[in-house]
Each structure stands twice: as C-alpha cells, then as structure tokens.
Amino acid sequence: xxxxxxxxxxxxxxxxxxxxxxxxxxxxxxxxxxxxxxxxxxxxxxxxxxxxxxxxxxxxxxxxxxxxxxxxxxxxxxxxxxxxxxxxxxxxxxxxxxxxxxxxxxxxxxxxxxxxxxxxxxxxxxxxxxxxxxxxxxxxxxxxxxxxxxxxxxxxxxxxxxxxxxxxxxxxxxxxxxxxxxxx
Length: 184
Ligand code: XMP
Ligand code: MG
What we know:
This protein is α/β, with parallel strands linked by helices. It has helices at 17-34, 50-59, 110-120, 179-183, and strands spanning 10-15, 40-46, 64-74, 83-88, 98-106, 126-134, 147-151, 157-158, 174-177. The chain contains four helices and nine strands. It is globular and about 50 Å long.
C-alpha cells in the first residue's frame, strides 16, 4: 500500500519507500562493519519492527540469526508507563551472545530501556539497539541507541510496520496520521 492510497488519512508524508531503504542500507553498512566476523542475534520487537527487521536483515551481509519478542507496556491510552509485560519471549538462550534489538520507533524510551536491561540480565555479551525512528522531544529516559535512523517530531506516525489500531502497517512509506482519524 502506498501513502497516496490513504492520502485522506494523512496529515503529512514523512519518508518514502526509497528514503527508508536508503537509511536501512546505511545502518546495515555500519552494523556489517561493527560485527564483522561475529555471530549476531537480531531481536525484533513485535509487531512494529517486522518491516525494519525484514529489510535490515536482508541488507546485512553478515550471517545473522533472528528471534522475536512481544511486549506490552502497562499504561493508560497511548502513554507508555515503563512497566513492561512479556507477551512472547525469545526462544534463544542469550548466554554469551551479541544481541542487536531491532525496533521501529523510540518514543519515551521506557520500553527499550527495560528491554535492554532485561536481555542484558540473561547473560548476553552485548546488547545494542537499532531503531528506525526516534522522537527526541518525547524522551523520558535516555537510551543509548547505537544505530538510529531518522529523528522525528513528537507526532503520531504510521506505516512501514507502525500502526494505528492495527491498521496502516502495510504502507510502504511513513506518514503523520491526520488528527480526524483518532478523533473519530
Ligand atoms: P516507548 O514510549 O516506551 O514506546 O518508547 C515505544 C513504542 O510505542 C509505540 N509508538 C508508536 N507507534 N506510531 C506508532 O504506530 C507512533 O508514532 C508511536 N510512538 C510510539 C511503538 O509500539 C513503540 O514500540
Ligand atoms: Mg514497537
């Protein structure tokens, strides 16, 4: 699905498919260089990171393994609380592993800071983060994101895995959701 297919639901276009792919290539090159000769485990955070994971994994020339986690953060409405519950855990033993968490977006940072601490506590040798988008103005905790894609304003964005009420994940680009959608 293209951004133009849902133009009425968008306040703005943020990134086209090509801009996203270029950014992912750039991140992949850095990751390839940093982990050359290593056995890297990519951990995708369901469901939003599915597209980033699929494209990043294929852009890498490193041999990688993939695993997935699903988490939900307790809190009211759209506010993340930092209290995180695991809905689906990893299948992989992290002892001695080099782990790269793959995320779509960092908002308050609470989910990722919890996740990094959780994965580190399982004996991983290293835990780094790759996130396609980041909202610096929304940060409540400082999260060291080694591989960060685009910095965006504090607006609700959709597409390329990001949803509103589980819709719009299959958009090829990323856009800002029009306020009339969440007001209705
Ligand atoms: P925190 O606040 O803990 O939460 O960093 C990050 C998670 O919140 C979701 N999120 C969004 N999802 N458009 C979305 O579709 C957005 O603009 C947005 N901001 C935050 C997302 O699930 C992310 O993993
Ligand atoms: Mg997410």
